[in-house]
UniProtKB/TrEMBL annotation, chain A:
Membrane topology field: Peripheral membrane protein
Molecular function via GO: calcium ion binding; calcium-dependent protein binding; protein homodimerization activity
Name of protein: Programmed cell death protein 6
Every EF-hand domain range: 86-121, 152-187
Alphabetically ordered keywords of this record: Acetylation, Angiogenesis, Apoptosis, Calcium, Cytoplasm, Cytoplasmic vesicle, Endoplasmic reticulum, Endosome, Magnesium, Membrane, Metal-binding, Nucleus, Repeat
Described purpose of this protein according to its UniProt entry: Has a lower Ca(2+) affinity than isoform 1.
Pfam family, one: EF-hand_7
Assembly behavior: Homodimer and heterodimer; heterodimerizes (via the EF-hand 5) with PEF1. Isoform 1 and isoform 2 self-associate; probably forming homodimers. Interacts with CPNE4 (via VWFA domain). Interacts with PDCD6IP; the interaction is calcium-dependent. Interacts with RBM22. Interacts with PLSCR4. Interacts with ANXA7 and TSG101. Interacts with DAPK1. Interacts with SEC31A; the interaction is calcium-dependent and promotes monoubiquitination of SEC31A. Interacts with ANXA11 (via N-terminus); the interaction is calcium-dependent.
Native source organism of the sequence: Myripristis murdjan (pinecone soldierfish)
GO CC annotation, single: endoplasmic reticulum membrane
Source domain of life: Eukaryota
KW DNA damage (keyword) present: no
Biological process, per Gene Ontology: angiogenesis; apoptotic process; response to calcium ion
TrEMBL record, chain B:
Any GO CC annotation of this UniProt entry: endoplasmic reticulum
One term of GO molecular function: calcium ion binding
Membrane topology: Peripheral membrane protein
Main location: membrane
Organism: Myripristis murdjan (pinecone soldierfish)
UniProt xrefs under InterPro entries: EF-hand-dom_pair, EF_Hand_1_Ca_BS, EF_hand_dom, Peflin/Sorcin_CaBP
Protein's name according to its UniProt entry: Peflin
Keywords, in A-Z order: Calcium, Cytoplasm, Cytoplasmic vesicle, Endoplasmic reticulum, Membrane, Metal-binding, Repeat
SUPFAM superfamilies tied to this protein: EF-hand
Amino acid sequence: QATSLKHQKFNNLASIQLLRYLICVFLCRVDKDRSGVISDSELQQALSNGTHPPVSPLTTSCSLSAMFDRENKGGVNFNEFAGVWKYITDWQNIFRTYDRDNSGFIDKNELKQALTGFGYRLSDQFYGTLIEKFDRQRKGQVAFDDFIQCCIVLQRLTDVFRRYDTDQDGWIQVSYEQYLSMVFNVV
Amino acid sequence: FKSQHRPTCNIPPGVNPEAYQWFQSVDTDHSGSITLKELRQALVNSNWSAFNDETCLMMINMFDKTRSGRMDLFGFSALWDFMQQWRALFQQYDRDRSGCISGQELHQALAQMGYNLSPQFTETLVGRFSVRGGRPGMQLDRFIQVCTQLQSMTQAFRERDTALAGNIRMSYEDFLTSAITRLM
């Protein structure tokens, strides 16, 4: 058993190294201007040419590179890109478990199940709003890239809300400027 | 100068003739509608930098009544008027003619537009929306983005501040809804 565990560990390590190598090769192709930093547009292009479905912008400030760009340099470097890659793969796996017919779309009920699975407790009316905003192809369903956008926006808004909801009762009292800075932080 | 413009009688009613001609040059693939990419290539700031994606996307979302991610001639004509207004305001408030709006200039601009905001807050806004690595100051694209969003957020706040107390109490879902419905 110990050998098989060791073997498995080795396999994991090997696959991580292989993955790092593949990402490196991939990044050299993606980083068109050779700046060492993958900009948002390079990232979008890369993701739509790769094995992942295209990730198109709805709100670019809630974009992937903005989430992973630690130094505010306008893009992601190699290590941060590995984070983006893992993030997308994780989301894709989650998306697939709800996209039962493999259509690349999830409907309102599936979106609700997915977000409830992440711990969100939201009303039916709110899911209606979400579908309306993120169903950009007007199918009554949400595509994978819009699903990621939706999750990122929700996560960022929730984070900023929590900062003000110090007693955690689900209510906040904010002044005009506080409200503006809360929303400007996310957009 | 050989003009390739079509006869002006082709301009549909309600469309600004200048916007019509600009539309023809921006619609590079002659599809009859403007995509985000085409719009981005058409708009420049006073320092010749292209408009940022967020502002272009925001404007497409504002004027794309079909919600197709593309703007037709009518939407584009409305956008043209919108841009002219903001460009004039930008030039008016850029008092030192530096081509960008400083924290102090933004504070004066917003005060004249009727916003009651502290100098600290406007300074933070300029800091957040300045070109990275450059000296602090807002280009036209950011000025349009900030003013438009400020307008929309202020409206959201006022709808909830019915007692005009300057403070609002919001639930989690109300906060999410106010932000999500207005900002895209």
